[in-house]
Amino acid sequence: MLRIFSIPKISSRTYKVWLRNKDVFMKTIKINFIPQLLEPILYLFGIGYGLGFFVREIDGLPYVEFIAPALICISMMNSAFFESTFASFVRMYYQKTFDAIINTPMNIEEVIFGEILWAATKSMINASIILLVVSSLQLVRLPESLLLIPLSFLVGLVFASIGMCFTSLVPRIEFFNYPIFLLITPMYLFSGTFFPMSILPEQIQTISLLIFPLAHAVNISRWLTTGIAYSSIALSLLWLVVVAVPLTILSINLMKKRLIV
Amino acid sequence: MKKSLISTMSIAISAEDLTKKFDDFLAVDHINFQINRNEIFGFLGPNGAGKTTTMKMIQCVSPKTTGSLIVNGIDVEKDSRSVKDILGIVPQENNLDPDFSVLKNLLVYARYYNISEEEAERRSFEQLDFVQLNEKKDVMIDKLSGGMKRRLILARALINKPRILILDEPTTGLDPQARHMIWDKILSLKKEGVTVVLTTHYMEEASQLCDRLVIMDLGKIIEEGSPQELIQKHVGSHVVEVDNTPAVMKCLTENGDKYEEFANRVHVFAAEPEELSSKLMKRCNFDKVTVRQASLEDVFLKLTKKALRD
């Protein structure tokens, strides 16, 4: 039990794994850029302006401004979680990339940590792209909203390590449907994203704040973009930091358990 | 003291009582071996004999269960990073990076060894020349033939100028041209002073390349020596092959000859093949007698013939 929380042996070589993934990403950046740019625009218009036509405003905020920070957070979650599940699984299982890397002086802990850092970086890249879109539409306040960029790395780290825990457990790639439908989808809906959590039954609010990283990410982000805080910002930030570290360690050790036999 | 110093310097890899256990399955069962510097050392054995598991322990990617394993004077458990730094690995499975071109595969791999960018580029082109893949440098991995992939993996394994090269079934699935090319490269690496450890189940490959070899079966080392020694010891110089019929078997048993029985053929081991075959033909009325030189394959089949296990 203690061993899965033991501190992994990690050196600065971790960066080489991050660099490998960055190199692949840069090769296809022109293709990568477009969906990331399109998705938030579609949501902003479809939900923000479309549904916003009827909703008008929530707590004094135009609906589209209410959901803009949530859309950024959902993108942080999806990009980091996708990267450390499907993408890492493909590299591990089908491409045998990890096997090739650990034949060099790199160890498995560094490989996994590099993957997690890369997934967090993907979260930061995507959040920055969407921030650019919503800023140009004047839906967020500046310069405060620029703090979303460092926040997106932290949020990315949390979701990347959650994803990596699942990657260490699933026997086949299809099994990722379970965490997506049982964890990601409810989180996507009930984290104060499209409506405030206060309209939910109190028990569900408590559960959301206890176990949903997205609820805290949205809370901080909405405060940054609008100035309105739904619950304590300090507590939300603390929650994310406190959870990120042990989750990262846990996911590295679980992956080591899977791969080193 | 002096003697032990010399012996550690001349030994590349040594294993004592090495075991590997997966749950209840003993994959490597108390094996001992010493691989000298600058020799080509082979691990032969049927599928599932424990060869790859042994390689993975040497590579420091699979921890040993018990025993000791010293590579290049370093305990694999104490400092695996230093061990990995002087090893070159050609794994059984092709694990080239499909997200990159041929050249980029080498450049990215060099980075994992902390090789500087300029040096990595210089070495990559040098290795591409060595395995004759220069023209393919910008091609993506999935466009390469099987032989090209193996050659690129060999080039990749040499990017850190390894002192010990581990080849796990380097030529499985290759056509004869590609196979001979790989053999050629292995022999020229030996000339440059590299120690080569290889696993194979091609007996011809082992005979051509290996200075010494061990035969593994069911996790144990069952025989050790040079290919010639093993052939002499277990088979003799020649083999006389005859059809397996009850009459033949009866005659052979009466004569007290050394033979190995297969479903359709019987291999009779002989030092004086002409004498034996004329004797057999005369006394037992054999027809279809083939006389040939004994090979490592005869040794292998004799020692590991018991069953087709998988």
Overview features:
heterodimer, A: about 260 residues, mainly alpha, two-stranded antiparallel sheet, B: alpha/beta, Alpha-Beta Plaits, 2 domains, 4-stranded antiparallel sheet
Describe the SSE topology.
The complex is a heterodimer of chains A (261) and B (310).
Chain A: H1 14-27, H2 29-55, E1 57-58, E2 61-62, H3 63-94, H4 97-102, H5 108-136, H6 148-169, H7 177-189, H8 202-211, H9 213-226, H10 233-259
Antiparallel strand pairs in A: 1-2
Chain B: H1 2-10, E1 11-22, E2 25-36, E3 40-44, H2 51-58, E4 66-71, E5 74-75, H3 80-85, E6 87-90, H4 102-112, H5 117-130, H6 146-157, E7 164-168, H7 176-191, E8 195-200, H8 203-209, E9 212-217, E10 220-225, H9 227-234, E11 238-243, H10 246-255, E12 259-261, E13 265-270, H11 273-284, E14 290-293, H12 296-304
Parallel strand pairs in B: 3-8, 3-9, 6-7, 7-8
Antiparallel strand pairs in B: 1-2, 1-4, 4-5, 9-10, 11-13, 11-14, 12-13
Distance between the termini of chain B: 48 Å
Q: Please identify the oligomeric state.
A: heterodimer
CATH homologous superfamily name of the largest domain in chain B? Answer: P-loop containing nucleotide triphosphate hydrolases
Second rung of CATH, namely the architecture of the largest domain in chain B: 3-Layer(aba) Sandwich
Biggest interface reads: A-B, 21 and 28 residues
**Shape, principal axes of CA atoms of chain B:** elongated
Largest sheet: number of strands, sense, barrel closure of chain A: 2 strands, antiparallel
Please tell me how large the radius of gyration of chain A is. 19 Å
